[in-house]
Each structure stands twice: as structure tokens, then as C-alpha cells.
Amino acid sequence: MCGIVGYIGPREVFPILMKGLQRLEYRGYDSAGVALLNGASTFQIFKKKGKVSDLSTFVRGKKLKAHVGIGHTRWATHGPPSDTNAHPHLSGNGRLALVHNGIIENYESLKKALEQLGHRFVSDTDTEVLVHLIEELQQRENLSLEEAVRLALSKVVGAYAIVVMDKEDSDVLVAARKGSPLLVGIGDEEFFFASDGTPIVEYTRRVVYLADEQIAVVRRKTGLEIKTIENELLSPYIEQLEMKIESIEKGGYDYFMLKEIYEQPHTIADAMRGRIHAKEGWIRLGGVEEYANRLLQADRFIMVACGTSWHAALLGEYLFEGLARVPVEVEYASEFRYRNPILTERDVVLGLSQSGETADTLAALQLADERGALLYGIVNVVGSSIARLTDAGSYIHAGPEIGVASTKAFTGQVVLLTLMALSLGYKKGTIAKSYYHKLLNALENIPSKMEKLLAQCDEQVRYIAGEIKEASNALYLGRGHNFPIALEGALKLKEISYIHAEGYPAAEMKHGPIALIDKNMPVIVIATNKSAYEKIVSNVQEVKAREGRIIAVVTEGDQAISDLADYTIEIPETEELLTPLLSVIPLQLLSYHIAVLRGCNVDQPRNLAKSVTVE
Ligand code: G6P
């Protein structure tokens, strides 16, 4: 939520900032801006409501020579998207420019106090209050920029990642973080700041991930210094940024989302690589091996997540309870953390998150940590806040996911949950050996089945999308393991095509949603289950009797449901427990094609952001 980039060094800064902002645009895209500092100690500031491309058009033809600068792409929290509310924001005297990702919760009281001291504000943002506060302290106490930032942050309640520039000292950039991600890239007499590694990967792979309440000061000549907000000097821990440039480009696809849908056979194979060997009959997950005793003795698993990751967690409940016979509770992170939940040291709290930065999930895990539970993370972004906080965990290894609607991270999470449930079940002896081996084999075969499915269903799904694209509502039904897939299919449609959609357990339909069904209502039924098949057939008949338009996702060779449905999409046969990994694919494609046909911006749907770092 909001993307930040900054640079100081010998290169021309403007192209670095713009390219960086384009890569970070998935984090927010309602306005963008840059501030450049040239040798004559003057700022050039350009800010525009709209996309990064609108900012590009706006600055076309302007003379932009500078070697220090900061940039920002915004997802509005305080104040609507506008040129004025866009970052960077200036201090009252125009000396400091600042970009910020996060929320300053006590900004109103700070603003009042500053107004009494004569400060005047031009925007509605909390960020402008912060830069005025830094200015006030810098002026009043005659402090260096770094000291003023430190002091200001000690007065702030909330979350921030910031980068600040001082036009009276073009040799320095000061940055800090708490609750919002920020990393420093280290080059040869040059430094970068960014919300993630994407803006800097072609320049350097040496990075330092800032931790909460750390301040980084970079000077071109003297280098990087990291301190805590309490002024304690730390030695920077330099890590290698693992990221392929191809993975952050569209590679010939119209949208990142489509590329990411098609990447799934490879990303789930990567999620399994080195962790499973069907022939030899083993599963090895580092995190599980390391904490085997506590995991096996756990009284319960509590899975916390938001959005699509929450749907993966729901599937986790079926998997863990079914295979490892351990009670599971699935919680919306935002509800869990405010409920004073009962937690003990014998609980394992499993946090699922693509970004590893979702504020509510992070806070839920922090709460569980305080209460002594073991924290396990299933995360995609390496080095993210959740990955660092948790005691143990497993990365999904899906590579950067840029489309706002999550696809490959979801299937990656489901693979990890399956591996974990199988591993725990095997160790506990709760799965029959023959079934365990059967599932291992089936799991290893999922990537090739997914590949086949993508090749065979895309055209057909596009056709169906054309048939139902004008609908204003849609219903998704599934049972058992495919109930979370019904929820996920509905969420995907809502997110990117703005059609109202609901996911329901198929049997619950008659307790309400059935009232909505008429000939205009597409009903997408995921009917790949072998168990309860007859019951699903009855549910489909109930829809048919009310003239609903039925789109059924079935297993190859299905007869009964195919006879009833208006459209049938077949998925390859696999173990029932693993069908969600296949049945979700046509649903992802369906929402993608409907969104394209409706002229929606698939990768950047309105009002959403990929990484929600506010609560
Ligand atoms: C946002 C995104 C969703 C995502 C959710 C959780 O709402 O738009 O696609 O599922 O955050 O994100 P996480 O990074 O924690 O998985």
C-alpha cells in the first residue's frame, strides 16, 4: 500500500525513480510523484493524480537533471487522490521533501500543535504533518536532519516507511521504517531505497532490510549508517536480493495476472522442489523438521490471514483436520486481533500472506507471539515482516506476484499447506501409509495436469466469459474442499470485474441465495467431488429448476452434471483432496476474461492495493 523509491549517487535519478514507480505501482495507483534535488540546492517536484503513466506524460519535455531524488505511488488513506495530496510532501519552509507509506494515527493532535506554532498545511494528508514536525524540530533545536527525523518519529504513533531529502544537504537521504516495508540497496558510491526489491534489482543485489524502528542514513561518500530510533548504532546486515528480472516483466502477456495464472504449473513445482519425493516417500519442510515436537504436540492450529490468503487458510482447515487430525481454527486476522483471543503456549498460529506485510495479519501474529504461541509463516516475499517475525516457516517460492488479484500465491499456499498436513499426518500416524503414498504421487503430478488444463480450457472459458459478461451478480457454489474455491472464485470476479459475486457451500444455497436465482443469474458450480456427488447433482437441479445459468466445473468424463449444465469445464482427474489446485484455474481465467471483456484494468482494479499495510 503505497510504493516508495529513492536514490542518491552518480546516475541520473529521474529514470530510476520512474521505472521504480512503475514496478511498485501494484502497491497503489491513485496518484504518483517525484522530488528531485539538483546541484543548485533546489527541488523539482512533480505530482499527479492518476497512474505513473500520467505523471510521465505530465513531465514530458521538462529538463530533469539530478542525482538525488525520491518518488511515491499512492493508495489514498487520508485525503482523496489529488495532485495536492500526492507525495512527496514539503515542509513549511520548503527545505525538506518526504515520501511516506503507512498511517500516522496521532496526526490530528500533532497537526493542532503545529498549527498553534504557525504551521499551515496545504494537503489533507497525515504525511504533511510528519514533514512539518521534522522541520519544526530541525529548526527549533538546530538539529541535523537525521536527529530531527529520529526525534519526530519518537512522537509519532502509527506505521511508516519514509525517505526524507534536505535541499540544504544534497549528499544525504534519511529513511526509517515501522510497520511498512523498506529496504536499502547498496551500490558503488550509490544507494537506493525501495518498498521492495523490484525497483533496484538491475542496479544492485546487495540489500539491507530495515527492521521496525530503524533509521538509515546514506551519504554518498561515507556510506550507510543504521541506528535504532533510540540512537543505538547497528552494523548493517547485508543480504543478497534473490529476484529474476523476467519475473517482474510481463513477458508478452497482456496483463501480469494472466502471466501469473500461466506460471502456476512452474510456481507450484517450485513450491515442492526439494521438499517432496514421491518415489522415496518423503516430505521435508525445514520449518516443520526444526519445530517438529511443538508442531506435533500442538493442541490446535489457528490460521490467520486476509483476502485470498484467508481462503487458502480455509482449505488448510480441511487438510490439517483431515490428514493430521488436529483441530484448526481459521480467523480473519483483523477480527482475531481485536477479540482478546484465548491462546496458550500449546497453540500454533499459522500466518498466511503473499506479501508478508499485511498489517492485520502481522498484528495478529504479534499478539499471538506475546501470548507464547509458536508462530509459523507461509509467505511469498522473502525477508518480509511476517517472515521475520515468525519462529518458523516455509516460503512459497512463487516469485513476485504483481497482479493485484492473487493467483499463483494462492496455489502456492495450498501446496505448502498440503505438504505440511501430509508431513504432520505421516509423523503422527494419522494417515494410512498407502493413502499417504497415493497423495504424494498425485501431488507430484499436479503441475503437469495444471499445464494440460490451462492449454485445454482457456479458449472455452473465454467463450463462457463472453456469454455472461453482462451479469450484475453471480453465485459460486462448492462443497467440502471446493467450498473455499467457491469463495475464491467469487472474490476474483468481484475484485477485477466489479460484478457482485458470492461464494456459498452448495447445500447452504437453499437457505437464502436460492431466492436470487433467475435466468439472468450465472451460477458457477464446482462439482469435482466424488464424495457427496449425488448431493451436488441435486443442488444443480435446484438451480436448473429456477432457470439459473449453470457453469459447472467437473472432472473429466462427468455425465450427470454435464447433462444439466449450460456450460461444462472439465478438469483432469486427481485425488479429491487435491482438486482445488485444479478447479481454481478455470475460475481465475473466468474472472480474468470477464474483466478484459468489460474493459477493466485487470492488474490495477479500482480501490484495491496489493499489499495492505494499513489496518
Ligand atoms: C489485498 C490483496 C489481496 C490479498 C490480501 C491479503 O487485499 O488485494 O489479493 O489476498 O490483500 O494479502 P497477503 O499479502 O497478506 O496475502
What do these coordinates show?
It is a single chain. The chain is α/β, with parallel strands linked by helices and 615 residues long. Helices cover 37% and strands 24% of the residues. The protein has 18 helices and 27 strands. The strands form five sheets. Strands 3-2-4-1-10-9-11-15 form an eight-stranded antiparallel beta sheet, covered by helices on one side. Strands 5-6-7-8-12-13-14 form a seven-stranded antiparallel beta sheet. Strand 13 and strand 14 form a beta hairpin. It is globular and about 80 Å long. The termini are close together. Bound molecules: 6-O-phosphono-alpha-D-glucopyranose.
Radius of gyration: 25 Å
**Between the first and last Cα atoms, what is the distance in angstroms?**
11 Å
Principal-axis shape equals globular
Helix count, per DSSP? 18
Largest sheet: 8 strands, antiparallel
Q: In what range is the share of β-strand residues?
A: 15-25%
- Average pLDDT number: 94
- Tell me how many strands there are: 27
**Spans with pLDDT under 50 lasting ≥5 residues?**
none
* Percent of residues in helices: 25-40%
Structural class by helix and strand composition: alpha/beta
Strands of the widest sheet, in order across it, are: 3-2-4-1-10-9-11-15
Bound molecules: 6-O-phosphono-alpha-D-glucopyranose
In summary, what is this structure?
With 615 residues, this protein is an alpha/beta fold. Helices cover 37% and strands 24% of the residues.
